[in-house]
Automatic annotation (TrEMBL):
UniProt xrefs under InterPro entries: IFT81, IFT81_CH, IFT81_N_sf
GO CC list: ciliary basal body; intraciliary transport particle B
The keyword Coiled coil is annotated on this UniProt entry: yes
Lineage: Eukaryota, Metazoa, Chordata, Craniata, Vertebrata
Organism: Rhabdornis inornatus
Any one Gene Ontology molecular-function term assigned to this protein's record: tubulin binding
Name by which UniProt lists this protein: Intraflagellar transport protein 81 homolog
């Protein structure tokens, strides 16, 4: 919990929150402040949730947060198993509920921001099935789903473009360069056309050149097809050779083996293949899928900064620490009865690892055997091409077997000799070791005797002197040989140097003259360069001054032009307004009543009078309605009572008719009984 709070505080003190909390101040936050902090973090993930919780009810706040957490796929930790308790803790601002939520949100802010953005467009609206019976609603729902799929594809393309690192500036620059190249090519084509138009029969020559280009392209395509067909033929021949070799092997196996051995081999091969299919290959596929999934996830994520790497490393360290703690707890809680099972588990894991290793070795051996077979096929084909057939006859095979037997006997003899030599070598080694021990014992006795006599180290010094004298004689001989060789080499080098001097003398004379010319040209070049630099500097200063002046004049011209256009537009608008005012005055002052009616003032006056008369009529109508409201309501009440009275009469009449019909039926039944 302490590591969790420390992580939350570190993240909240960074951008974009900048809360400046420490562990004590964060732990002392009240429930309302914690809820506001959680709302701020959710607002950073989804801007719609950047709300002050004091402006909404607690139930609305909890509902809003629960909806967003559900969209973000947050699962409450094991300590908050009951969903009602989690909701209650979220409403009350409980630390045990909000701290894990903050820790989970701050760990993956960028990922959750993307998920919240996508949820606005990809959370599907559930339409009831009875509404989908309508064709219009069904069509709209289908269009909605198609647009959702299109948005998914566009978002994937957008993420791939972001990952690819292409920027709009680079694309625009490439497009500009391509357009410039296009313009240059168009100019070159126009120039070449103008040059060709002066030549006689230029149309015919252009047609011939076009045909030549087409034939060259066709030749290249045919050559490519030929190469592809050659490669296909080569692969087909190799496949045929492999099939023939397999056929020969199968025939040889069938001819030389028995049914029991064949069945045994087939069973072994079947067991091996079943192990590969059921255990090894699915495990490898699963590991490959997981690695591909993680790689795709890494590729889909944006480029990581050093801060992201440090955060991931800290998270990795935390997870490793948790794993170690769990392992220690498990080792502490280990029961003696489980030790036997652990021993069996270890044995089973060791056996499975050995089995996997042997399967991999067998697979590698098979691959190596197949590669060797391919090499053998290639070598046999080369030998067949160079020397002809290599199939042995029966006599040649017998001779080959007899040679093998003789070589085998010779090999066995040599092997016995080697064994004897090895045994003798062991004896000699033992003898050498014994002699060395005796030599060491004698040396120790000699040293003890020398110490007694007061001449310790005499034998060692004598041996060293003998060894040094032997080494000195060898070195003297080597020095003599080396001096002879060096004298011969010096003579050869002197002769070669004299020859080279004689051959290089005229070249050196020419080189001296050329060096003098080079120095003169270098001085002249330096002087010219100084003159050029001074002239270029003066021209550059003049050019920069002129550019500044031109730039200022252009800006002034643009400003004056914009002022002119603005004044011109204002003038036009004022002229239009003045013209409308003149026309209005002319129409208003005109003696003609028709012309006066067209004036705006007259029109608005007429509209005002019409509205006043309409208001007067409506007020009179309102007055009449108010006066007749009471009698009308009374009359309506009377009519309602009358309607109820008539309804009661109708019901009474119907009941009376039913009773009369029942009495008549009873009377008729009594008469029938009397007749009987």
């Amino acid at each position: 919990m302490g590591d969790q709070i420390q992580f939350i505080v570190e993240k909240l003190n960074q951008e974009p929150f900048r809360k400046n909390y420490n562990l004590i101040s964060f732990d002392s936050l009240e429930s309302l402040q914690l809820l506001q902090l959680l709302s701020d973090v959710l607002g950073e993930i989804d801007p719609k949730h950047a709300i002050d919780i004091r402006e909404e009810l607690p139930e609305q706040t909890a509902k809003r947060m629960l909806n967003l957490l559900g969209i973000l796929k947050y699962k409450p930790p094991g300590t908050v198993s009951d969903l009602n308790a989690f909701r209650q803790g979220l409403v009350t601002g409980s630390k045990t509920v909000i701290h894990p939520v903050l820790h989970w949100l701050l760990q993956r802010t960028s990922e959750l921001r993307t998920r919240a953005y996508l949820a606005r467009f990809l959370v599907k609206l559930e339409v009831p099935a009875e509404f989908l019976q309508d064709d219009t609603v069904a069509d709209f729902n289908k269009q909605y789903e198609e647009l959702m799929e299109a948005f998914k594809n566009l978002h994937k393309e957008h993420e791939q473009l972001k990952i690819s690192g292409l920027s709009t500036a680079e694309i625009r620059r490439d497009i500009g360069a391509m357009e410039e190249e296009k313009d240059q090519l168009a100019k070159r084509v126009e120039h070449l056309k103008k040059r060709v138009e002066t030549v006689q029969n230029h149309q015919r020559m252009l047609e011939i050149a076009r045909q030549l280009r087409l034939e060259k392209e066709r030749e290249e395509s045919l050559a490519q097809q030929k190469q592809e067909q050659k490669s296909q033929l080569f692969h087909a021949e190799q496949k045929l050779q492999r099939a023939q070799v397999q056929l020969k092997e199968m025939q040889h196996m069938v001819a030389d083996s028995k049914p029991d051995s064949l069945m045994k081999k087939l069973e072994e091969e079947m067991n091996f293949n079943s192990y590969l299919v059921t255990e090894k290959i699915p495990r490898e596929m699963e590991s490959k899928k997981t690695s591909v999934y993680f790689l795709q996830k890494v590729v889909a994520e944006p480029a990581m900064t050093q801060a992201d790497l440090t955060a991931l490393e800290s998270e990795r360290d935390e997870v490793n620490a948790e794993i170690n703690q769990l392992i220690e707890k498990r080792m502490i809680k280990y029961e003696p009865t489980d030790s036997k099972f652990s021993m069996y588990r270890q044995q089973a894991s060791i056996i499975s690892r050995k089995k996997e290793a042997k399967a991999e070795e067998l697979q590698a051996a098979k691959e190596e055997m197949s590669s060797l077979e391919r090499q053998m096929e290639q070598k046999s084909s080369q030998a067949h091409e160079l020397e002809g057939s290599e199939v042995l006859t029966e006599d040649e095979f017998k001779q080959y077997v007899s040679k093998l037997r003789s070589k085998n006997t010779f090999y066995k003899k040599k092997r016995l000799e080697i064994a004897e030599i090895t045994a003798e070598f062991g004896i000699l080694q033992r003898t050498e070791e014994l002699l060395r021990q005796r030599h060491e014992a004698i040396q120790q006795q000699l040293q003890a005797t020398e110490e007694k006599k007061g001449i310790s180290g005499y034998s060692y010094t004598q041996e060293e002197l003998e060894r040094v004298s032997a080494v000195k004689s060898e070195m003297d001989e080597m020095k003599g040989q080396t001096l002879d060789n060096m004298s011969e080499m010096v003579k050869k080098l002197n002769a070669m140097v004299a020859e080279k001097k004689a051959s290089l003398a005229p070249v050196i004379k020419e080189l001296r003259q050329l060096r003098q010319n080079c120095q003169e040209l270098t001085q002249e070049c330096d002087e010219k360069k100084i003159q050029y630099d001074s002239c270029a500097a003066g021209l550059e200063t003049n050019r920069s001054a002129l550019e500044q002046e031109v730039k200022g004049l252009l800006e002034e011209c643009a400003q004056e032009e914009s002022n002119y256009r603005y004044i011109n537009c204002m003038k036009r608008s004022l002229e239009i307004q003045l013209q409308r005012a003149k026309e209005e005055m002319k129409a208003y002052m005109s003696p003609d009543p028709q012309e006066r009616r067209r004036a705006v003032r007259e029109q608005y006056t007429r509209i005002i009078l019409e509205q006043e008369s309409l208001g007067k009529k409506l007020r009179e109508k309102q007055k009449v309605v108010r006066e007749s409201h009471g009698p009308n309501m009374k009359q309506m009440k009377m009519w309602q009572d009358f309607e109820q009275l008539m309804e009661c009469k109708r019901e009474c009449f119907l009941k009376q008719q039913n009773q009369a019909a029942i009495g008549q039926i009873i009377q008729e039944g009594g008469k029938d009984r009397l007749v009987l």
